[in-house]
Fold these 2 entries.
Entry 1:
Amino acid sequence: MGKRRQNHIVSSYVTTFLAAWCSFMVFCLWPGPVCADKVDHEETCRRIAGKLASVSLKDCLADGIVSSGRYSVLGIPLLIKEYPPLELREPQARVLLVGGAHGDEYASISIVFKWMDILNVHHSGIFHWIFVPLLNPDGLLREQSRRTNARGVDLNRNMPSPLWREIGYERWIDVAERNPRYYPGPYPMSEPETEFLVELIRHFKPHAIVSVHSPLNLLDYDGPGIPASTLGSLRLRRLGNFPGTLGNYAGIEHGIPVMTVELSSSGRLPTSGEISSMWRDLVRWLIDNVPIETEPEEIMVEEDRKELERRFFGK
Ligand SMILES: [Zn+2]
């Protein structure tokens, strides 16, 4: 399949999800228990803006930020924004950028909105982007925000890597001493937010993933290719990974480079100069290094989730 054809298919990603969402909304004109627990886009943005001082309702309702058609455990839409290929330019690569996997890392969500502001003005078509500003809305939007989702699962320990149980889950017991902040879930990809991310990676087939966290004040990197040495004032310090993390799942298992941006503070956003400088360094790194030579492998999906669930409860 030619690259252009593939891009065309990929660019219809949001359209497909939107169609599913619209059918859902039509269905939900009928009152009933099925619909009672879903929150709409505007209300979601109202809650996000109420929680994050540096994200306004207008920022969140901006053009192009849409519901993916997928929802958190508590029925909050998982928002995405796509910057599709431009008509006259073949993109160099597809890039997925994800914030807010951990609900108490406020700056990791706010900075994604700031970077979207920059890209809104400067999208030149060199990359085909999808942004997920907030993977874990339930963790953020609780009265007391927390790292884990509504079922107490750490989404960055719940990715469906091989050896999830043997290494990832066991590590939670032995090393994390069952600390609930790092609970990897009952089985891999048990959570709708994780399943959404896996499906997004499978459909979009990014050549690179940027994942934003805080407050470790460093730049981490998993997978093939050459890491950036700096991003603004952040310096590369590779932490390694283990089954259940996005770095392991995408970087090691599927050969997609994962750059993890660990901001220096969860509560304080970097200065606007630093936010721009990080963005410039990120784009420069992408231009020079992505796509890498190897092709991402086929990625597991829906059927695999059922198999994972069966294996877990079978033991
Ligand atoms: Zn984090």
Entry 2:
Amino acid sequence: MVNATTYRVQRALTGAELTAITTAIGAAGSAGEILTAMLRNVFGALLAPLGESLDGYGPNHQLDPGKFVIPQPQWEAISQACIARAAAFGRQAHMAIELINVMPCAYDDPDAVVPSTPAADQRPYEHVLTVTREAADVIAACARRCADLGGYFGENSPQYREAAGSWLGNLSQVFSMAFGARTRVTRDGDLSLLVSCDSGLVYGIIFHPVRRRCTQPGCKAVINDDGSTWTYMPDDPACPGGQHVPSYPQDAPAPGSWSFHS
Ligand SMILES: [Zn+2]
């Protein structure tokens, strides 16, 4: 914790100052303009009583946001206004991170005045999702794999729960608008997808199959779908005579899970 005596300004913003700040943020025409509007209005207000303005600061005389502190509820209201406006440009996830470096500090003051209405939902009206036909086939194959695992191992099995849970969680992420309102989904393997977002983020939803191993104590053999076996190192211990006990049968659907990779 920084000692309070090192702050240049520690005070609550007035209702009028908060209104000016959130109005300017709400009028920003791009993610960059949001940060500019926040900086000009928040630090402009905090500097004014010192007889200073932001015009006195620049590359050679940088403003240190950590020297200013406002009440936590006001800090949250300003952050939420920035993130809500960023949603109009598909940048809310980035904005939340960028704000950390440029916002003033916050102090505990539950009684500080805050805007009477929370920031409105400013996301575009619809999310335009483009799914190539190959990706549509992958999505169907992923759902089928989950159903096959449920049929083979049972819907209470860890194999089914891990696959279905990870698939649903990652698939619902594709529909989220956190990274923009235009998204393109393409194939990235039999059970994997590549997702390109409006904000520039590209991520994979990748299926990681669980290798079929031998469960005999001490044996390090891996068993392929065709029944052939191998070990990572030539001298790794393995069952004598190749009498392995596979961790799941050869005719079973391969268990596994999907994970997010950016
Ligand atoms: Zn074995």
